[in-house]
Design a protein that fits this description.
The structure is a single chain. With about 425 residues, this protein is an alpha/beta fold. The chain folds into 2 domains: about 240 residues, Rossmann fold (3-Layer(aba) Sandwich); about 140 residues, no CATH class. Helices cover about 40% and strands about 15% of the residues. It is built from 14 helices and 9 strands. It has a 9-stranded mixed beta sheet, with helices on both faces. Helix 7 runs antiparallel to helix 9. It is globular, with a radius of gyration of 24 Å. The relative contact order is 0.11. The N terminus is likely disordered.
Length: about 425
């Protein structure tokens, strides 16, 4: 059957107008979804066609809706209803995603829509009254699941979950509780700690890099402690100007900054050749210390944004400890054991660590997990708590041998980079 040219143009115009109309109606679609309470249009970059800040109403306790509700921030960047979705399981607040130019790595590689969920109790995604017992990994996973269920009828193509650092943890735990939601998953530099002070990080720091680099770092730490009497007044002056306060005496906090230094140094991939020498001034040593171990880290003032993180570390997610033995001769503190509770948590916040999440997640990753690529940096101390998944052939663990906590798909070695792209392409567009 022949179609005249004018008739053909009419059909094409109709199809184009329908597609444009559908995209312009996205806010109306969203407002019809149960749980959506508000939508704001955001300024958008050229990569996406539309961008919105959406507030979803969530149960404070998904096991008991009578506990109340809160609004959770979700940032939706729209490319097309015929495209897959990159689902970002943020572990902290998601304010950065409001920026005009924010495009996730997976979104840019695979030309997807992008949906980011701010973690409960962080940023503006928290109840008016905080009840810490409901900040659980199960509730956070169920937040993600309910948002997925709400938006899947609109975005019907495959979804791939991802997250960085604590977001990597969040992604894995979400997949564990709801393994059928995603077609694929890419948790990036996400640790799985087994206790409040895991114990593996200290051993990691004794073998990471080479002996020369480790020795330079240790000597720098020793020099900071040897010069404590002369550096401490300079340190106190910087702290006073910053307005930071701490739960421990400033003399002890200074020592914790020195202990933290080696972890932070390797975490961010700093060049050992940049370390100051014994010949350098007190001022130069101190400036280098606080550039790596930033003064806000142990401060009470950072608690407003970071307290939810440390609560989760103390209750379910775990953290790392400090090995004081190599510096014992120069330290006034006898032991760093229990430092997370003493430094980061208010006295009235009594939390006991529950290893259930760790145990279940390790079991899941070694048995039921599938279509998953875990990415780590070989020099990143957080990789000490990376899971051994060698028993599960349905998932892959990719490590950049010299990578830091900034390891991403884009900076993997060429062969590993190509493998990740090829494998994800197969899963996302199957």
């Amino acid at each position: 059957m022949k179609i005249c040219f004018i008739h053909f143009l009419f059909i094409v115009a109709l199809l184009l107008s329908t597609q444009t109309f559908s995209q312009r109606q996205l806010p109306q679609y969203l407002l019809k979804i149960e749980g959506v309470v508000d939508i704001d249009t955001l300024e958008n970059c050229s990569f996406f066609k539309e961008k919105y800040l959406v507030l979803f109403e969530q149960d404070i306790n998904h096991k008991n809706p009578e506990a109340g509700k809160f609004n959770q921030r979700v940032i939706i960047s729209h490319n097309g209803f015929d495209k897959p979705v990159t689902y970002i399981c943020e572990g902290y607040e998601g304010t950065y995603a409001l920026r005009k130019g924010f495009v996730d790595e997976l979104s840019s590689i695979f030309n997807t829509n992008q949906i980011l969920v701010e973690h409960r109790y962080f940023g503006e995604s928290k109840p008016d009254s905080i009840d810490w017992q409901y900040l659980t990994t199960y509730n956070a996973a169920t937040d993600h699941h309910k948002i997925y269920e709400a938006l899947k009828p609109i975005y019907t193509k495959n979804w791939v979950s991802t997250g960085i650092s604590k977001g990597g943890q969040t992604t894995m735990i979400y997949n564990m509780h709801y393994p059928l939601d995603m077609c694929a998953s890419v948790p990036i530099v996400g640790p799985i700690a087994r206790d409040v002070e895991d114990g593996r990080h200290e051993a990691f720091l004794k073998q990471v890099g080479n002996n020369k680099s480790r020795k330079k770092i240790l000597n720098f730490q020793k020099e900071l402690l040897k010069r404590k009497e002369s550096i401490l007044p300079l340190f106190k002056n910087i702290i006073k100007k910053s307005g930071y306060t701490y739960r421990l005496p400033i003399e002890e906090i200074y020592e914790y900054f020195v202990l933290e230094f080696s972890f932070a140094f390797w975490q961010w991939g700093i060049d050992p050749e940049k370390l100051p020498s014994k010949k350098d001034s007190d001022e130069k040593l101190l400036q280098f210390l606080i550039a790596v171990s930033t003064p806000d880290y142990f401060a009470i003032e950072s608690g407003e944004t970071m307290l939810p993180f440390f609560y989760q570390a103390a209750s379910e997610l775990g953290y790392y400890g400090y090995d004081t033995e190599p510096l014992k001769k120069y330290l006034s503190i006898e032991s760093a054991e229990g430092y997370l509770h003493r430094i980061f948590l208010p006295e009235d916040m009594q939390v006991e660590f529950n290893p259930e999440t760790y145990n279940k997640l390790i079991e899941y990753l070694n048995t039921y997990a599938h279509n998953t690529i875990l990415i780590y940096g070989g020099y990143d101390p957080w990789s000490a708590a990376a899971p051994d998944v060698s028993k599960n052939t349905k998932i892959f663990k990719i490590t950049h041998p010299y990578g830091s906590h900034g390891t991403r798909i884009k900076n993997l070695p060429k062969e590993k980079h190509e493998f990740v792209i090829r494998q994800l392409n197969e899963w996302i567009y199957k």
